[in-house]
Write a structure and sequence with these properties.
alpha/beta; Maf protein; 181 residues; globular
């Protein structure tokens, strides 16, 4: 199966390619408008529809949100903009005492007729301060449930076994294998 993965983030593409063995992904960067919503599900559906109008071939769009309990789920899908504004340290600082959070990835697949969203979550907490050098985005501030290390302190293989993104891509992979049958 061949399809485009619409992203300008090489790290996301590399993780997706590692998780979707058997699916030939081609990275394509498009400037897509992004609706302002805390819901990653809403964001990926809009972006997938817009991308399909440009590409006209089967494709995937992925987005991830970081939902912090003490902030009533903020920043959610707006996490990229929050990181650009106040940085990882700022997120750690504003979280407060209740550090519970979850990460959610939604992947939207469309072939022009079908539009399907697959999601995965990882529960955990926000670290007191950023730790680790691997990963990207907010990986240095998220400690998954049952672990003492942030995603940025883990090897990619370890992170891919437990992450929100891996759960979403595994759900998609099951669906994609049914398309080949």
């Amino acid at each position: 199966m061949n399809m485009y993965f619409i992203t300008s983030n090489r790290n996301k593409f590399d993780e997706a390619a590692a998780l979707l063995r058997g699916v030939r992904l081609r990275m394509k960067s498009l400037e897509l408008r992004e609706i302002q919503s805390i819901s990653v599900r809403d964001v990926v559906k809009e972006k997938a529809m817009e991308a399909y109008r440009v590409v006209g071939m089967p494709l995937l769009v992925e987005d991830t949100g970081l939902y912090i309990e003490s902030l009533n789920g903020f920043p959610g899908a707006l996490v990229k903009w929050v990181l650009e504004s106040i940085g990882r340290e700022g997120v750690c600082r504003i979280t407060g005492r209740n550090r519970s959070a979850y990460a959610e990835t939604c992947i939207c697949y469309t072939d022009g007729k079908t539009v399907k969203v697959f999601s995965g979550r990882a529960y955990g907490k926000i670290a007191v301060k950023p730790r680790g050098r691997s990963g990207f985005g907010w990986d240095p501030i998220f400690v998954p449930e049952g672990h003492k290390t942030t995603f940025a302190e883990m090897r990619m293989e370890e992170k891919n076994r437990i992450s929100h993104r891996s759960r979403a891509f595994h759900s998609f992979r099951r669906y994609a294998s049914s398309l080949r049958d």
